[in-house]
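Teaching assistant here, posting this on the class forum so everyone can see the example we discussed in section. The complex has two components, and the goal was to see what a joint structure prediction looks like when all of them are supplied at once.
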Amino acid sequence: MTAWQRLTLFSFPYYEDNRAAYTENLTNYHTFRVSGYDATLGYVKNSVVEKFPWPKEYWNIDAQLRTVTLITPAGADPALRSKLIQESIGEAARQETFKVLKGWRNENYPVYAPGGEYIFEIERSAACLFGVVTYGAHMTGYVEDSTGLKLWIPRRAKNKQTYPGMLDNTVAGGMCTGEKPFECIVREAMEEASLPEDVVRASITARGCVTYTHVRDVRAGGETGLLQPEVEYVYDLKLDPSVIPTPGDSEVEEFMLLSVKDVQDALARKEFKPNCAVVLVDFFIRHGILTAETEPDYLDIVARLHRRLEYPTASHCVR
Amino acid sequence: MTAWQRLTLFSFPYYEDNRAAYTENLTNYHTFRVSGYDATLGYVKNSVVEKFPWPKEYWNIDAQLRTVTLITPAGADPALRSKLIQESIGEAARQETFKVLKGWRNENYPVYAPGGEYIFEIERSAACLFGVVTYGAHMTGYVEDSTGLKLWIPRRAKNKQTYPGMLDNTVAGGMCTGEKPFECIVREAMEEASLPEDVVRASITARGCVTYTHVRDVRAGGETGLLQPEVEYVYDLKLDPSVIPTPGDSEVEEFMLLSVKDVQDALARKEFKPNCAVVLVDFFIRHGILTAETEPDYLDIVARLHRRLEYPTASHCVR
C-alpha cells in the first residue's frame, strides 16, 4: 500500500477507529437534506455554506443544527427539486463563488433517498459542493499469457479538465441519471477504447464494487476538503492478445499494455488518478496479487475498499 | 438475498444506519480488555459477565464502565495471558456455567492487539463468550464447462458438533495460533476434500476476504446473543472436471457438484451453514452472478460483506 493509495481510502475517518475524532470531524460540515426525507444526503463544508448564495425562498440554513435543507412544496417531484438546485448552483456559478464550478460539465448526476428512490439530479461539477454520493463504472482490461498478467492502461489526455495526463483504468465513466452500470461500461468501452460491443458483452464480468469517501485535495483542483462519497462498479475484461484498445474519443491519449510490476511502480510514483488506483488495488486483491501474506494492512484495505456509506444509495436493479 | 443470508450479515447494527440504536445495543455488552493495551478486544454479553466465575486475582469487572479487564503483571507475555484465560475458562467449564463450553474443542484461536500484535490464545469454544475476532479460510471449488458453472458443495457429517448435516463451502477451516491463511487452506483441502497439494497450489487463487459480526442464535446451539466477529479469507479453485473431491476425514459426509441454481435454491431453503452462505454470496458477486441489475440490495450487501470491524485484527504478512 503506497501513500498515494492511502490518500483516498484513508482520508475520511471511521467511527470504529476513534469515536470522538469522527464526531469532531463532522463539525466541519453541515448535513444536506431535502424536505420530506429523513436522511442525510451529503455533507456540505461549513466554508461552502457560508459563501453559497442560497436563494432564501427555498433553502433553510440552520447554523445550530448545522443543516442545509432544500424546502420544497408538498407534491414536489424530481424535476422540481432538480430545477431549484440547478438555479441555485447556476447563480453561484455566475457569481463565480466556487472554483469547482468553473469546471461546469453539463452532465447530471442522480441523487437517491432511502430505499433507492431517485429524488433529483445535480450538475456533475457541483456534486462535491453538496457531498452527495456519485456513481461510476470502471473496467480493467487485461491479457494473460505464459509471461503473466498484463493490464491495458490509458493515459488521460493532457487537455482533460480533471487529472490531465494521469493514468487511468482501461475504461471508466460516471453514471448519469437513468444509466445502469452494465450498459454504462459497455457504452464507455466503445467510446473511450474502441472496444467492439460484441467483444465486450461476450467477455466482460461484473466483479462487485468499491465504495469510499474521497476528501478532495489540491490534486483535484478547486476547493479542498470537499467530500466525494463514491460508488464504482468494477468489471474485468479478459482480452485476447489480438484485441488492441485504441482511443475512441479525445479523453485518452494512448493505451499501454503494462505488467503488474509496471502498474505497481506507476502507483507508487503517484501516476494514477486516485479513484483508479483504488480500483486497481481491488483488482490486485481479487486476482491474488495483493494477499494477506504480502500486505501488512490487508484486512484494513479490504474493508476500506467497501466502506458502508453514511448516505442512502441507489438501487440499479431492473427486475 | 434470502432471509437466511440476512441473518448473519444483517444481525449486528451499524453506526451509520442509526447512531442511537447502535449505541443502545452496545449497552447489552461489556468491553473485553487486557491491561497494557488501549483497545476493545471483544464484547462480552452482560449475562455472561454476571454468570462467569471470574477469578478475582486477575480480573477486574467494572459495572459502571461495563468493562471486563484481564489484569496481568508488568512484563506479561502471550503465554502468561493465555494461561490465565485458560484457567478461567477451564473453571467455568468445570462448573458447567455455559452451554457453549460443552463443545470444548482443544483448539486455540489467536487474539491480536492494535498493529496486529499477537497477545494471547483462547480455546475455540470460548471465543464467542469474549466476542473476540476469529479467523478462517474458505475455498470454493468449481468447474466451468459449456453448460455453465458448477460448485463442489459438501454436506457436513451428521455427528459434527456444530451445524450437523448442513451444507458447507468446498473446503473451510478455522485458523489456529500461528497459521497463515494460504497454508491453512492448502492443508484443509487435503484433510477435508482429499485434494492433492500440487493440484491446489497450482490453481488456487486468493480472492480477498469477508468480514462481519455474527450474532449467535439458536441454530449455533448454546447461549444466544453472543458476538462472533469473523474474518474469512476467501479462495477460488477452478478444478478440472476429472478432479473429484472426496471426504478425507470424518467432517464431511459427501461432496455434490451443484449448479448455481441448485446452490441458490439450497441457500433459500437455509441449508447452508450461515458463514458459508456469506462466502457464497461473495463468490456470486465476484463471478458476475449476483449483480447490481439483479439484486436490489447490491450495494448494501457488498459493504456488509466487508464490515470494518470494531476491534484490532491480525496481520498475516510474512514479509
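For the discussion questions: Chain A touches chain B through 45 residues (CB under 8 Å). The two ends of chain A are 39 Å apart (CA to CA). Think about how each of these relates to the inputs above.
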